[in-house]
Amino acid sequence: xxxxxxxxxxxxxxxxxxxxxxxxxxxxxxxxxxxxxxxxxxxxxxxxxxxxxxxxxxxxxxxxxxxxxxxxxxxxxxxxxxxxxxxxxxxxxxxxxxxxxxxxx
Length: 105
Ligand SMILES: [Zn+2]
Prior knowledge:
By secondary structure, the protein is α+β, with helices and mostly antiparallel strands. It is 44% helix and 13% strand.
């Protein structure tokens, strides 16, 4: 005797097609939804934004501050690798012992 496990929509009980993950009040939750309720969720929600969750009323200021520091940091990261390269060129000098391995005398 065979049994089949059918995942049903947590809202209406129809066969579920997707499992959605939601974060509410710091807790992650999952919900199985049918195509209709997934469509409702997609129509009434917005895509998550990367980075820190923005607080209410402070949404405009952080985005304006982030753009300026990023532009200043790029030139600083380029200067450091250039200073390291001359040190590497000095290393091949001691590598010369490879020539000593060959019997010259
Ligand atoms: Zn449903």
